[in-house]
Automatic annotation (TrEMBL), chain A:
Its main location: membrane. This is Putative permease. The keyword Disulfide bond does not apply. It comes from Phormidesmis priestleyi Ana. The chain crosses the membrane at residues 12-36, 48-65, 85-109, 116-134, 226-244, 251-272, 278-299, 320-342. It is a multi-pass membrane protein. It is found in: Cell membrane. It comes from the Bacteria.
Amino acid sequence: MVQLNTGFTLFLSLLVEAVPFLLIGVAFSSLLMFFVDERALIGVLPKNAFLGALSGSLIGLAFPVCECGNVPVARRLLVQGAPTAVSIGFLLAAPVINPVVFWATWVAFRGQPEVVFLRVGFTLIIATLVGWVFSRQPDIGPFLQDSVARSRFRDFNRESGEVKPSAPSALLQGGTFIQGAGDMGAALRIDTPMAQRLVANPALEKTFSQKLTLAAENMVRELRELGAVLILGSAIAATVQVAAPRELILGLGQGMVSSIVAMMVLAAVVSICSTVDSFFALSFASTFTTGSLLAFLIFGPMIDLKNIGLLLTVFKGRAVFYLFALAALMSFACALFVNLFIG
Amino acid sequence: MRSPQLTPAKPTKRRLYWPWRDILDVLAFGAWSAMLFRYWFSGKILLLLHPNYTWLSHSAAFALVGLVALTLFKIFRQMAGPQSGQTKDMLGHVTLMPPNISSALLLGVAIFGLIYTPRAFASQTALQRGISETLSLTRSQPQRFVRAAAPEERTIIDWIRLVNVYPEPDAYAGEPVDVVGFVIHPENWPDEYVMVARFVITCCAADVYPVGLPIKLSAQERSDYPVDSWLRVTGEMTSETLDGRRQLAIAPTNIQQIAEPKNPYEY
């Protein structure tokens, strides 16, 4: 009975601490989704693959979205002709490199500030490197799902910041034209090409009040979805704390390697949102090695069950596997480094 | 983009449309808000969070009220007349669980939170988490150390931090003690010793850890002080050999049974 009380109190405590951050997270991500035009960003990104990956990783500062919101944004980036390095860097880093997550991690790990900085630092390194590796593939097309690849703009004019469809068709085009208004009597197009409108953020064309309504609706939807995942995650954390025998937890959690593997598996399965995952990790802080907590905090936002489903809407299975393998190996290496030399 | 609505022409009477999902959302968020307000006004929030962060939970309670109002407004508009094509899935939002199950889960947990009253952790949790006189590396390591002015003003965690910095127990012999905590009977201690302990919280109840000091009773009267009862102990410090090592212990002059404090944690 005492165990049950402890479990319930733990469970509620995790929820009550995490819900405010979840609210801030979904509010930010909803507002930015409807008010920031990522097309403007693409034009100013550096050309160099490494710098591109780095800046892609840092875009998260302007888009504080957790891992559920960043895949649609990364998809739009890819489709609108952002270099591969930028998109992959963004995909992996955005859930961690943003102010809300930094604050939440700071609140949770006030006692161990190194966790906060190592989390951000390692995520930046891993995302940049993976983005760089992916940029070696000159054309990302074969990695993408067919539907995404088809709608992509490959010919991206850097000087003018203009994007053009990959294969301007000579065939009849749909749209509204003024006959004979352009040079040489060619038709002048007066509306946005259909393809471009389909891939652009559809909300950007709406009025301010419509955007606000949409943002509020999106907020409710995300809160419902992420709140449910948070509840399941908290329930798992509380159950492990109360029900698992202490010897087992300590045996697993104090091992240099076993603790990291355990936390990475947990991160992939629990799928808890990056805004609140630090509170989940916190409940393991007294029994698990610092490196394993970091592995959880770095790897979880990059890849987890929920995220894989989302990634498969953009990338083909093989590319998702590469992403997964690279992220997992590098997170493991970073965590092991911390356990051996810092923790 | 407005798309024309394909509705059956029925001009006589408009069928009332009940947006069940939105209604479920209103109930769920409303219950969450009510739960947060309940913990706030009953003071139970202190059992769950560090006082530095209670304002976050209070603000969340208000924010949820705002969301409820927004959703109610939406329902009202929808019931007044069906709206044109809403952009439900236009952002490619992929969900892990069906929305109705998510809402039901949120609502269920909030109702549970409204009924259930959190309890302070007790000695069993302390024993399971392992009580230490020395703070392990994973715990809060203050970068700045301020020595509490008068010994009798130190709390249990103040004493533990002090011992952590300068572990020689004899250095504190004779200093006056005045601490409040709950009783633990460690299994491997002889009958004339009990431990007076407190949980320390840094963020939320998930990270509380116990600290405690031994009390040397004058006789084998351990049973006079039942497990989990709260005590105020005054006396002076001495050093005793327990668990095969010398450590700080309290030689009490007065032990007073008290009610559980409103805020059972230390910081």
